[in-house]
Write a structure and sequence with these properties.
Blueprint lengths: L10 E4 L9 H28 L6 H28 L5 E3 H34 L4 H4 L2 H27 L8 E2 L6 H5 L7 H34 L4 H29 L8 H24 L2 H29 L2
Parallel strand pairs: 1-3
Antiparallel strand pairs: 1-2
Length: 324
């Protein structure tokens, strides 16, 4: 374990998921596949929504932004992981570490608020369907998006600035696969009490506000659905929420396990839980929303047909140019 004063030698060493050399290449292959699937899945969701006029509504607007945030979220973490799997040094500069921390917090928080915005959208659609178009208009959607982005930027900046004021004079080995706040704080020589208080107050508020918003929205939805007389109507109403509820459970379940505990109790199990909400949730989102949503299935099928017809057209044009 390296011992240094990081005010003179500004670098960290990311221990990663496993210190054993024989594990590095299999982990590289695994996370490369997960990353490529995440990129392709979320990119297909965005293209399908943007290219299908029938998907131009608030629900799918927020879903396309969520897919974009998930691409950015995983890109902040996985490429550096892949490099470190094949590298002996596994170092990350102090500036790069804070940058990674900032964007990780930014896109993670954005995910949280986008999920809340999607819950509000479902609440209005089910509980107030006749005013859905007027309530969830373009201005409202853009306001929710701007608020989510602006608050996430300020939230991330606050925590990064608080970390930047600390001094590091013992080990520079981060027991994690990226620069998350908690494992970095464990390396600090100076007092981290301010960071911990802010994390347990402002940090908890930033997570709990959208979560409470989701809970209230779904309680109102549940009351409204139970008042629907027909069983078919109840099933249809619940089916529009099932995908979103699955994603919310995965995301908030793993976040609660990792962050709502004392700094001293952070262990290797938390690294595994972190993979769930940083990598697996982002990868599974496209499958959850496409497999359990008829509109998305139709949109993806239209996109596939459009790509196929365009490929055939280009092939035909190429054959004509080349001649017999």
């Amino acid at each position: 374990m390296e011992m240094c004063n990081l005010t003179r030698l500004p670098k960290f060493i990311l221990l990663g998921l496993s210190p054993r050399p024989e594990d590095q290449k299999p982990l590289f292959v695994l996370f490369l596949i997960l990353y490529l699937v995440t990129l392709m899945g979320n990119l297909l969701i965005i293209l399908a929504i943007r290219s299908d006029p029938q998907l131009q509504n608030p629900m799918y607007f927020f879903l396309s932004i969520l897919s974009f945030a998930d691409i950015c979220y995983t890109t902040v973490i996985i490429p550096k992981m892949l490099v470190n799997f094949l590298s002996d040094a596994k170092t990350i500069s102090y500036a790069e570490c804070l940058t990674q921390m900032y964007f990780f917090l930014l896109f993670g928080n954005m995910d949280s608020y986008l999920l809340a915005a999607m819950a509000i959208d479902r609440y209005v659609a089910i509980c107030n369907p006749f005013h859905y178009i007027t309530v969830m208009n373009h201005r409202c959607c853009m306001s929710l998006l701007v608020f989510s982005t602006a608050f996430s930027c300020l939230h991330s900046l606050l925590h990064v600035l608080l970390v930047n004021r600390l001094t590091f004079c013992t080990s520079n080995v981060i027991h994690h696969f990226f620069c998350d706040v908690t494992p970095v704080l464990k390396l600090a020589c100076s007092s981290t009490s301010v960071n911990e208080v802010v994390a347990m107050t402002e940090g908890m508020v930033s997570v709990m506000v959208p979560f409470v918003c989701i809970i209230i929205s779904y309680l109102r939805i549940l009351i409204a659905v139970l008042n629907i007389p027909s069983a078919a109507g109840k099933c249809k109403a619940f089916s529009t929420c099932s995908s979103h509820l699955t994603v919310v459970t995965l995301f908030y379940g793993s976040i609660s396990y990792v962050y709502f505990q004392p700094l001293s109790s952070y262990t290797v199990k938390d690294r595994i839980a972190t993979i769930i909400y940083t990598v697996l949730t982002s990868m599974l989102n496209p499958f959850i929303y496409s497999l359990r949503n008829k509109d998305m299935k139709r949109g993806l099928e239209k996109l596939r047909s459009r790509i196929k017809s365009e490929t055939d057209r280009l092939s035909t044009t190429k054959n004509k140019i080349q001649g017999p």
